[in-house]
Amino acid sequence: MRNKIRKLFKENKRIPPGPPKLPIIGNLHKIGALPHRSLWQLSKQYGPVMRLQLGGVPAVVVSSAEAAKEVLKIHDLDCCSRPPLASLGKLSYNYLDVSFSPYGENWRERRKICVLKLFSLHKVQSFRFVREVEIRSLIDSLRSSSLTETPIDLSKRMFALTASIIFRIAFGKNFKETGLDNDKFEEMIHRAESMLGSFAASDFFPYVGWIVDKLTGLQAKFELSFRELDDIFERVVDEHLNRTPEDQEDIVDLMLSIERDQSKFGEVQFNRDCTKAILMDIFVAGVDTGAITLTWAMAELAKSPRVMRKAQNEVRSYVEKGELVNESDIHQLHYLRMVIKETLRLHPAAPLLLPRETMSQFKLFGYDVYPKTILQVNVWAIGRDPDYWDKPEEFFPERFMNSSIDYRGQHFELLPFGAGRRGCPGIHMAMATVELTLANLLCCFDWKLPDGMKETDLDMDEASGLTTHKKSPLKLVPISYQ
Ligand code: HEM
């Protein structure tokens, strides 16, 4: 390795700065339970473009808006592949999905299907009734709980809501109709997520790592997690094969019609495994991320009664007492949308986005980056960078007043959905649910902390994993406002 570095210097190459490495493991020991936080600390010492060595694999971590713009806009094509990690391969039916597939013709065609057919603005609007029905059912159930003034576990309720909405959009039926139990399904999704966030030796130690993964039982865990979700998809797809044309068209119907009508998708094959792989994307990428965002928003509001009151006053000024907010009201709710932006700034559900892999050599801030380097963009750190954000740790939605900064991938200081070719294609679907749910939670209830608890007692710790869950469940008491 030393010879290689000497050779690079001789050839006048500049590699990004980074911490000293240990033999074999490189810098793996520097990555703690909350990688976005440990990488943030390291970036303070080594800068916004930092090199790490993860076992046998080189990595670059980007931690400023300017550097993120370079990789996600200027060099987007150089860095828009995904690394072939063991967990990603397993969950994606060997890279037949969109999220984890390497860049190429197959990925491009499948992404086109998602953007144009499955998650387009038009499609999202066509599922408006699903969101309205599921949110109404949540509000009704919270109204019953409010009679006894007992604290409810909002983290769990938000997961159940986003899962029900995605179930009905994808499968045409909700949890209960599918015969699944909310808690069990939540465990399945969390197992799949922790699989994605887990350290597989085969990813970082070529040739020998797979032996370690077999011995530690990791391979078997991956298999189990994949099987339990695959069983659900298999069953639902089979049921859809016998549906009548009168049934409301859902995402599985759409994908089955794409399977049947291959000619519309050129040379690229779209088969049953592609359908199930995209379902995996929808469930792994689409359920928890929305629930996480809603839980953090409610936690921040519970901690900040001034902001809670202001957001409630706004929502209630547009809606008759006792009524629900509907989607056509949302565009008027400017403060509510600022609250959501502020939540996404401080608590992006995927703090390091999804890992990317470089495909060619390019210069980044004057440093040379080589092909097959893992690239992580620390959007969590960028959201707290004092160079862009005044008092960054403070939850202060007013910072977005008279500001054009938005989260759709054009402003690199706020990137909760990523940007560029690999940016989140589910953004319309996600925001439709988050906005309508939050508006109704604020419209229909006042929220109290459980007895004896003060705002300062609310802990805001994050659990470890690929996504930033709130570590302890958020428990609040709903008081009905009607
Ligand atoms: C608040 C909710 C959500 C957040 C914060 C979120 C965030 C993200 C992020 C950060 C990425 C990676 C972007 C990158 O690597 O640059 C991503 C990718 C993706 N998301 Fe979302 N997402 C959300 C909801 C959804 C929903 C509801 C769906 C679909 C139903 C979805 C589908 C996807 C897919 C398929 C990808 C992979 C794109 C690709 O690699 O080409 N997401 N999302």
UniProtKB/TrEMBL annotation:
Heme binds at residue 424. InterPro entries: Cyt_P450, Cyt_P450_CS, Cyt_P450_E_grp-I, Cyt_P450_sf. This is Cytochrome P450. Belongs to the cytochrome P450 family. Gene3D superfamilies: Cytochrome P450. The lineage of its organism: Eukaryota, Viridiplantae, Streptophyta, Embryophyta, Tracheophyta. Its cofactor is heme. GO terms for molecular function: heme binding; iron ion binding; monooxygenase activity; oxidoreductase activity, acting on paired donors, with incorporation or reduction of molecular oxygen. It comes from Ficus carica (Common fig). Keywords: Heme, Iron, Metal-binding, Monooxygenase, Oxidoreductase.
